[in-house]
Amino acid sequence: MGEVRQLRQQRPTVEPLWREVLGAQLRRVRLHRHRTITTTADRAGISAQYLSEVERGRKDPSSEIVAAIAGALDSSLAEITDLTVRELRRESSRAQAAQVLELHSTAHARRPAPSSLRGPVALAA
Asked: pLDDT at position 60, please?
């Protein structure tokens, strides 16, 4: 009879949410420019609490809000979007590479041990 294998269900590649990566990029730019949340929020015309939630990926801001935050950071919507897309690509590549490694290690773990009973077998009468 044939070998019975239990198929392990693959976990789908989980990509980060746009709002999480966008928030991290906004925070990175803000800190790089030595700005506080309060100062940046005031310049953008939003509350410091809302900006904090955006940076933590809790809120999904409109393009107008992102543009206002970018402007408050002496940046542009295009620059922030470019930084965000680049990071999404990096994270997506990492997730795919991890999935390939997992599949590779799982395949090696499933290989049956070499056996002396493989090949033609003579039966005793």
From this structure: 97
